[in-house]
Amino acid sequence: MKTTSDTSLDGLLDNGCGKPVSRLPQLARRQRETLQGYLLLLPSMIFIGLIIGYPLVRSLLLSLNRFKITQGIDSERFCGLCNYINLSRDPYLPIYFRNQVLWVVGATVFPILLALVLAVIMNQDLKLRWLWRAVILIPWMMPVATSALTWRWIFDKQWGLLNHYLMLAGFIQENVGFLTDRAWLWPSIFLVAMWMWFPYNYIALLAALQCIPNELYEAAKVDGANALKSFWYITLPGILPVISLLTVLGIIWSMNDFTTIYLLTQGGPGVDSTTMAPLVYTISFRHLNLGKGAAAGVTLMMISMVFAFIYLRRSRDEIQG
Amino acid sequence: MDTYRLKFHLSRILRTIFTYSVLIFLTAIIVTPFLWLLTSTLRPASELYVQPPRWIPNEITLAGYTKAFKVFATPLANSVFYGLTTALLSLLVACPAAYSLSRYLYPGKRAVIIILLITQMLPFVLLLLPLYISYLRLHLYNTRLGLIIGYTALTIPYSILLLRSYFASLPAELEDAAMIDGCTRMGALWRIVLPLSKPVLMAVILNDIVLVWNDVLFTIFLSKDISKQTASVALYLFYTLRQQSGGVAQKEIMLAGGVLLTIPVIFLFIFLQKYLVKGMTHGALKG
After folding, report:
1. CA of B159: which chain A residue's CA is closest?
2. pLDDT digits 0-9 by tens, A147-159
3. How much of chain B, in percent, has pLDDT values that exceed 70?
4. Cβ count near B24 (within 10 Å)
């Protein structure tokens, strides 16, 4: 606002009636403003540059170097695309890829689905609302480490709660290792991901639902629409922008997520639940091959950036400063 | 007419029953892990290993907690310390930056905001490889200072984004008036903008503390001693290392540790919840 008036003033002066001298303090003030703006930004940019920017560039270079930490901290040598070639020849690559797709899709879709059901229910007049609300937010409050160990305890093959209940219900005949049997591994992981990640989606969806004016539903009712129809034609279109935003965010977050899978299964059994982020850690610190680890990480980043680009395009007006 | 009304009422009652049964079913599943964790920690270790599992133990004891507290006291203190210092440092750095992005006009502003958004979408595991090497070289590896620097950088971008969108929503006229009255720009930020921004400042603090509290990645890469690590990592290492070494799993300590880790977060949420939701709806999900 200030600047528009400033520029129009400049324009007036440019029309020939002003003396150049009178513009000088103006310009100086604006330059000072610009300088001050940069100065205020500087400390944060130093932090980000050193801890995020530099490592980013460094790991791009690292992925082009042969660097095994066992051969000493100065053993880094340029080797072109050797790490990427090495990675592409990894016999487990199709499994990592499958895991990554399974994980991203499951950890994005299931939390949103559960959140949607709960948000639609909670958007009505309910008794004991505070109670339901408190319960729904519990998984959000539990630290990831606590959640992971709690689920591991529930999944316990010998003493776990889930085995007991599934047996009671007759779904299984003998105890299952939920995180060790291939058939149960991914459903179990999805259950945990859904449980851990739905509250954020729930809050966003509930806020979106509350923005839909009630009159629309009343009008639909007058026109004879049933609950299903008004959900399909009013609710869903109303929250679709939020759902698609949550989907993109969910994809980006789960794609890069290291902690959940790592704490839950450590990528096992074998490599059956190893997704990209834990893979970077495993290659770098278990196989001690930092170059190849970086190559895997850079690959992951490239894929993430595609979705980051989609997100940035979607939230363009937020960026207009 | 009467049968029509009856039908209408009946369908409403059926719908209510359906709604509540779905709600009760789902919330029961959601709350089960939490309750099972709680009841598991209130019993002697021997009662953990019974078939069928018992919801109510025969003997109630807090022995698990006293043992867990001994193991996790230092990591818990670390987590509190890291969380608070990170939140303060992050605010100190992010406030001026956010103010600059919301009020000043200069080339490159858009680029800065895009960079900040992109940092939220990077796989941090990738950044930690070179960071690990640099930390080794600079002797920051396995130090408190190193971790705090890392955490601060981790939280700064999101803090700036949150603060910026809030600052931008405040009317600039207030600061203009203050500056006409002789305030400098910085004085206006300190006296006018920040006091008006309490909700978002709280949201940023809460967000930073929780981020540090939950973090596993930074601590696992950049430290190795339990005396330096956060409680999340200490807890995780406690149960995996025991399991791998084939020693006694000591589940009661681990489960009680899990509860100890959760309690502070629950209190934080209860006190600051309204700020958090406010901050969230102001940040990532706007637009």
Report:
1. A44
2. 999 999 999 988 8
3. 92
4. 11
